[in-house]
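Obj: model holo form, ligand = fe (ii) ion.
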Amino acid sequence: MINIGLEDSNRREVTRVLNNLLSDECLLSTKTKNYHWNVTGPHFHGLHALFGNQYAKLDVLIDEIGERVRALGGNAFGTMTEFLRCARLEERAEMHPSELAMAEDLYDDHEILLRSLRGSLAGNASLRSDFGTTELLTRAIQEHEKMASILQSVLGKDDQLKEWLKAQDAIQREIGIEVLAAAVSAT
Ligand SMILES: [Fe+2]
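Output (holo structure tokens):
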């Protein structure tokens, strides 16, 4: 029996919120690792390092969230089945998008998580009564804001760069279609 000054129903509700967040963070960490490993293109070095740095930060957060669930007497999710069932974020159908699409995809996910975290902190009374979790989620917001702002800088620091990357995307798609068409006509 845990008696840390929180009602059992509050602890259960906070645990539910934390496990959902854990699922999203694990999905985002995996996605960021995928992009760290598979990014290609003229900005490989910068993006490879940036994505590596960001997944390391996410993994620190993930560990804290899982251990917070345990501190509240719950069971932390720890399987891909649970993560995929409860994550609100989504995997991309395209496994190896362009470098621009990778940065945009991660930025969008950080925004979704920021909106979700703010919604939980503002609207969930059980969560607000748990100061330890409130502190953790407030730090999570700050971490996601920092990561999102760096991605935003990468995407928006140079409109010419963004236009150039978009043009490269279009060319690659066109080449892909041409190669496919040639392969089809050769059969
Ligand atoms: Fe690495």
